[in-house]
Specification:
Elements: E1 2-6, E2 8-9, H1 11-28, E3 33-37, H2 50-58, E4 63-65, H3 76-79, E5 101-105, E6 111-118, H4 129-139, E7 148-154, H5 158-167, E8 174-178, E9 188-189, E10 195-197, E11 202-203, H6 214-221, E12 238-245, E13 252-260
Parallel strand pairs: 1-3, 2-11, 3-4, 6-7, 7-8, 8-10
Antiparallel strand pairs: 1-12, 5-6, 9-10, 12-13
Length: about 270
């Protein structure tokens, strides 16, 4: 079982790269299931629209996760209710529309659970991610409720992401961090068999400041004339990880960082 996880898709650049290259990546890497964080996919670089959701799902992404920008496009409040392949963090308010967890069919007939969480430190207010994770694991078990489990923790700090990795070790196929837009080089398999990566990076233009136009970002830091952040529009690098997992126990046997195209080109 080969699972591809892609980091935050940012603006038109990221969406264009995904639509252009993902079908060939899936074929060449023999990918069975694709998850991507899409909370920055709108042209403004924040939120996601219904049209973009359909476009990303139609080019090979099986499930889209989100984070703190999930509601930045107001239309999401309406269409997420009926779009089960678009998740929002499970530990948002219980009154929030949509779902934070789902089980989906993969190539090969396996059931893949995808859990979307959001960190508590330096993030928008949400329920305690550790208490919510513990409750989730009390109610769901790998090989009982699903064959594989992918956990996207959308969070700011490394220690919180690593701690969640240990919470799910042996209980999930892959725990991956999103949000910082910078790919980390610490992919590994934890002691009980769960693959872990602190941050998958972004699918966007790296000639930027975390995906946003560099000149405008510098002007904001210097407190010079500037406008609201907007995405850089150069060629995107597609960043994430490929997990090879064992259908017998749902755990990981290998994790490989995946970076394709743009300034960070490493894979061919």
């Amino acid at each position: 079982m080969n699972i591809l996880f892609l980091g935050d898709i940012v603006g038109n650049s990221g969406c264009s790269a995904i639509k252009k290259h993902l079908p060939l990546i899936i074929k060449s890497k023999k990918i069975n299931f694709v998850v991507a964080n899409g909370e920055n996919a709108a042209k403004e670089g924040v939120g996601i629209t219904e049209n973009i959701t359909h476009e990303l799902l139609s080019c090979g992404i099986d499930v889209i996760t989100t984070g703190n920008h999930v509601w930045d496009q107001k239309e999401t409040f309406k269409f997420i209710k009926n779009q089960k392949r678009l998740l929002r963090p499970l530990n948002l308010s219980s009154d929030a529309p949509g779902h934070g967890f789902g089980v989906f069919d993969s190539i090969g007939g396996y059931k893949v659970g995808v859990l979307n969480l959001m960190g508590n430190v330096f993030m928008k207010k949400c329920d305690d991610v550790f208490i919510k994770s513990k409750k989730f694991l009390e109610e769901n078990k790998i090989k009982d409720n699903y064959d594989f489990l992918i956990v996207d923790l959308h969070g700011e700090i490394t220690s919180e992401k690593m701690a969640i990795g240990h919470v799910f070790d042996g209980e999930a196929t892959f725990v991956v961090g999103t949000h910082t837009h910078v790919p980390t080089n610490d992919g590994r398999i934890l002691k009980k068999g769960t693959a872990y990566l602190t941050d998958a990076g972004m699918c966007g233009d790296y000639d930027s400041v975390i995906g946003m136009n560099a000149e405008n970002s510098l002007n904001r830091f210097y407190k010079r004339d500037s406008v609201k952040h907007f995405p850089a529009e150069g060629e995107a690098s597609i960043c994430g990880a490929i997990i090879e997992a064992d259908p017998k126990n749902g755990l990981a046997s290998k994790i490989s960082q995946f970076i394709f195209g743009g300034q960070l080109q490493r894979d061919i």
